[in-house]
Write a structure and sequence with these properties.
The protein has 40 helices and 29 strands. It has about 1000 residues and is α+β, with helices and mostly antiparallel strands.
Length: about 1000
């Protein structure tokens, strides 16, 4: 076989053909006009060759007619790459990335020097300390992988469709050591396992093919990567190469990009691989590792576990030359570092920067990752991120031709057509900038300079590194900075998601800036996955974490699960608009996020805002809030002074806030004290603002706690907007003593009640126990049995010795929900204007006053069955059963029955039978039957000693009720509980009893005649 090298020029696609300018220094000829190119994982592609004979030092264009070739070249090779072409046969070529490898002896010496720094005396791969620290735990994992993920085991599990078991075993092996990062499961190296719920079978089969499918490992890896891309699954170097490594330790390698890059840099080698995994990149690195293994045979490596362990040691040796961190991780050598700083200096000049102290500039080396970044105004201009990659802002259509990926969007600079995007570009492309790219670069910097010419600051100035800025222009200082390094400060900017410490990142700022500059659907959709990862998901997670630590007083009132978050895309009837912010809110249960008072959270290009807001469509709640603030302003200023003393609270909508030039909030903004006087003026919005990049300074716990504390502080404002009488509710929430000087009621014992009512003590005990247990009871029975009388005495007993109170309300057929709970009532203003306001009904008013007391408060509902109870009670039906919960009322406010409220109803069964009462209501009350109690009548007259023949009267009533023969219609005793009964009984019987009997026995007049007064009088001997 013959092998020669070509160096690619800039490829282009024209008239259906791919044009690939190449330079070569070898001679190749073939008689065939058609050859087959074996392009790695792409398989065999037939391509016509325009020119066959390649002569030494010529420049020709090979033209291929297959679109697949274009995609393959653009995916795996860049301009100036060197490619090995192997002539496998007269009709087959093999293309692979070239390896610029030094002599094996030189590599060996560098490796030995590094490993002996870490393990003095190292003499081979069996060196005990080396084995103990670096090899043993990997070998244990390999053994477990052979047992759990071997070919036969996986074949059996696939045949049994045991996909969950396969995933569990993958997770177990992946978690067996510290090679894979698992600190944050959603973004860790095993995060793909959480993303395959709907396609477990397909993933498990693709995993099996990766480990044991047909072809070489590069081909299998290529098929796996295509599967991952097709299904939009997390795609990292670490996952597939780790399992290739533990399944085939004799020949496969594990690639952790930063560690692998550090190893290659330490031995002075290059291998072409991108940040995104590719089969070609894997083969390139594997070739270096295999060469290393061959040159270390004298030290007896057993397998790739030994070699991989050695690579780990070398990568961690810090032997990256004289450059100090972070520059050693950013640049390959001094030459590249100097060029990069010169490039930044030139860029500043093109931006019109003439002073080291220009406040529009932020040159930063942030905490958390190797990164050198230049911001101008609020735009990201350029950065260096290591791995031979830089970033630059260029017009979208041009950037996409040379960038490996787009990282940030900007929009509509000078006209409707020009959009700027920020993308990764190889340093080689920038260093050898073509004339066309030079023109674009110069024009872009001029446009950006014009855009920010009048700006007087950048929001990223706090993290600016003045010494680094000076080093761009002072070569002596530059030598010092590159040699000694520079301390990172300011914003944490993680390079990989697993290093992320806070909710938000610099990508959040860039994405929201892009959306602000171009609030269009296209801006969002072209980078939708990034918006979800860096904006939407972090805000959702922050809200979820905040809810988890809020007190129950808030979470029982506020909706914390459904309908909390907005959408970025506008519903603007196809005009393609998008909001330039993303927000979520907790709001009273049963309400709507767009209407209700809420504890809100917003993120936009300015920063993060969280606080209190009333939805634009919440007219009733806005009016209630306005009225309550006006009516209770004096006491609110006292109650809320400590809670709202934080000077960072500002009043007003986000678009009204005043910012300083450096992005901080101005003192000109209104405060909460201004807001409390008149919320209407400030849009019913009171918030705490963290301008960017300040949110990036917070860890997840710090930001969560700050938002939760803010919500606790502002929750009284929700009560102001939902409660007609908010002060008691606010005092309860703040745990302030209410009416601590209220007079106490006199004690009233069961013995006293038995004496006063004539009811037996054991029966009264049974009734009071029922009231205490159920908290609501109904006394029911025929007319005249003393139901209201005993209800009043039960209430007196319940409130005895405490500061509670009792009241009575009587239902009737016209009684409504608006009377009992709440309803809108018309009101005439001082100027004669008519308005409609939500007013509390009798029960809500009772509960509001009861909440101010510690003692039991009793509401007696007389004739409870005369109204339509389901309509009158409304939401109360639920709360009567679930006393410890709250529920939003029809008017929007959340309501719960105070713990000290008791309800006693009375029901005349002659008026409406208990059988007609709604079953759901019957379940919520204890029903206490009260028939005519002749003992009560007897004890009453015995106690009065009035000489009335009570035994004869009892006999007469018993005879009458036996004749009625329906317990719901019996004649009760309360008619006759009168001290002067001897004087009144004739009138009582003729005017009250006889009319009742005439109605009941309307079809039996003879029966009525038997109980006329003249006959009864004779029976009573009167």
């Amino acid at each position: 076989m013959t092998t020669f090298q070509i160096t690619l020029g800039e490829t282009y696609y024209e008239h259906g053909y791919l044009h690939i300018p190449i330079e070569y220094d070898e001679y190749l000829t073939t008689e065939s006009e058609t050859i087959k190119l074996v392009l790695g994982e792409q398989g065999e592609v037939t391509a016509k060759v325009k020119r066959i004979v390649l002569a030494t030092q010529q420049r020709v264009t090979r033209i291929f007619g297959e679109a697949a070739l274009k995609n393959w070249f653009q995916k795996y090779f860049t301009v100036n790459d060197t490619i090995d072409i192997t002539v496998a046969s007269p009709d087959k070529l093999i293309l692979q990335p070239s390896l610029a490898l030094e002599a094996g002896a030189s590599i060996r010496e560098k490796v030995l020097q590094s490993v002996r720094q870490a393990f003095p005396g190292w003499d081979g791969f069996q060196f005990p300390p080396f084995v103990a620290d670096e090899v043993y735990y990997k070998q244990r994992t390999v053994e477990k992988a052979r047992e759990l993920l071997g070919r036969d085991e996986l074949t059996r599990l696939l045949a049994e469709n045991a996909f969950d078991e396969i995933l569990e075993r993958i997770k177990k092996i992946g978690s067996d050591n510290n090679l894979l990062w698992r600190g944050v499961p959603k973004s860790g190296d095993l995060n793909i396992l959480s993303a395959v719920d709907g396609m477990k079978a397909e993933f498990c089969r693709a995993f099996f093919d990766l480990l044991y499918g047909d072809g070489e490992s590069g081909e299998r890896l290529a098929r796996y990567l295509m599967f991952v891309e097709e299904h939009k699954l997390p795609n990292k170097w670490t996952f597939p190469t780790y399992f290739l490594f533990v399944a085939h330790p004799q020949r496969e390698i594990f690639i952790k990009p930063r560690t692998t890059g550090a190893f290659l840099a330490a031995i002075g080698q290059k291998a072409r691989y991108s940040q995104k995994p590719t089969a070609a990149g894997y083969q390139s690195i594997k070739a270096v590792v295999e060469l290393l293994r061959r040159n270390l045979e004298a030290y007896h490596p057993r397998d790739m576990v030994d070699i991989q362990s050695l690579m780990w040691v070398v990568a961690g040796s810090g032997n990256t030359g004289a450059l100090a961190e972070p520059f050693a991780s950013l640049f390959r050598d001094w030459d590249e570092a100097n060029w990069a700083l010169d490039f930044l200096r030139e860029t500043l000049g093109r931006l019109g920067v003439t002073s080291l102290d220009d406040p529009r500039v932020a040159l930063t080396v942030p905490v958390g990752r190797p990164l050198l970044r230049l911001n101008f105004g609020n735009w990201l201009i350029a950065d260096f991120i290591g791995k031979g990659l830089a970033g630059l802002t260029l017009p979208e259509n041009n950037l996409l031709d040379i960038s490996t990926r787009s990282r940030s969007g900007f929009a509509k600079k000078l006209n409707e057509e020009t959009h700027f995007y920020y993308g990764d570009i190889s340093i080689e492309v920038l260093r050898d900038m073509s004339p066309e790219l030079t023109i674009l670069y110069e024009q872009s910097m001029q446009n950006i300079a014009d855009r920010f010419r009048k700006w007087r600051g950048t929001p990223y100035r706090k993290a600016h590194q003045p010494e680094l800025m000076a080093a761009l222009f002072d070569m002596e200082l530059r030598q010092k900075v590159l040699t000694e390094g520079i301390e990172a400060k300011g914003v944490s900017m993680p390079i990989d998601s697993e290093q992320k410490d806070g909710y938000f990142s610099p990508e959040t700022i860039e994405l929201m800036t892009a959306l602000h500059e171009s609030p269009r659907k296209e801006t969002y959709r072209t980078r939708q996955d990034e918006y979800k990862e860096y904006v939407e998901q972090p805000l959702r997670q922050l809200m979820k974490d905040v809810v988890a630590i809020l007190p129950q007083e808030i979470t029982t009132v506020m909706e914390t699960e459904k309908g909390l978050f907005s959408r970025v895309l506008k519903n603007d009837y196809g005009r393609g608009g998008a909001w330039d912010h993303y927000w979520g809110a907790l709001y009273p249960k049963g309400g709507k996020r767009t209407e209700a008072p809420q504890l809100s959270m917003w993120v936009n290009h300015r920063g993060l805002e969280f606080g209190f807001y009333v939805g634009e469509y919440g007219s009733i709640d806005r009016r209630r809030l306005q009225e309550n603030c006006r009516e209770h302003h004096a006491i609110l200023a006292v109650l809320l002074a400590d809670l709202l003393g934080d000077t960072r609270f500002v009043a007003g909508r986000p678009d009204t806030f005043v910012f300083n030039l450096d992005g901080t909030l101005s003192d000109e903004n209104a405060t909460w004290r201004d807001w409390l006087k008149d919320p209407f003026t400030f849009g019913f919005d009171l918030s705490l603002i963290l301008p960017f990049p300040e949110p990036l300074h917070f860890s997840t716990e710090e930001l969560r706690d700050l938002v939760a504390q803010t919500y606790k502080q502002l929750f009284p404002l929700v009560l102001l907007a939902t409660e007609d009488d908010p002060i008691p509710a606010i005092k309860r929430y703040l745990r302030i003593e209410i009416n601590d000087t209220a007079p106490l009621n006199s004690e009233y014992s069961l013995e006293d009640m038995a004496e006063a009512t004539g009811f037996a003590l054991d029966e009264l005990q049974r009734w009071t126990r029922a009231l205490a247990r159920k908290k609501q009871v109904v006394l029911y029975g025929p007319p005249g049995t003393g139901k209201t009388f005993i209800a009043e005495h039960l209430a007196r007993y319940a409130i005895g010795g405490g500061d509670g109170f009792s009241e009575l309300v009587q239902f009737h057929p016209a009684y409504a929900y608006e009377d009992f709970m709440q309803g809108i009532r018309p009101e005439t203003g001082p100027d004669g204007s008519l308005s409609y306001t939500m007013k509390r009904g009798r029960f809500l008013d009772f509960c509001s006053r009861a909440s101010e007391r510690d003692g039991v408060c009793v509401l007696i509902i007389d004739e409870i069955n005369r109204a339509n109870l389901a309509r009158v009670f409304g939401e109360l039906m639920y709360l009567l059963e679930y006393r410890d919960r709250s529920i939003p009322l029809a008017g929007g406010r959340a309501f719960s029955i105070p713990r000290n409220v008791r309800i006693i109803g009375t029901m005349n069964t002659a008026d409406r039978s208990i059988a007609l009462v709604d079953h759901a209501l019957r379940r919520r009350f204890a029903f206490l039957y009260q028939p005519p109690n002749y003992d009560v009548l007897r004890r009453f007259h015995q106690r009065k000693k009035n000489g009335f023949p009570v035994e004869a009267l009892i006999t007469q009533l018993q005879t009458l009720n036996q004749q009625i023969d329906d317990r719901h219609y019996e004649v009760g005793i309360s008619f006759f509980l009168r001290e002067s009964l001897a004087d009144d009984i004739a009138d009582i019987w003729q005017m009250e009893i006889e009319p009742y009997l005439e109605e009941y026995f309307f079809d039996r007049p003879n029966t009525v005649n038997g109980f006329r007064w003249k006959n009864v009088r004779r029976n009573l001997n009167l």
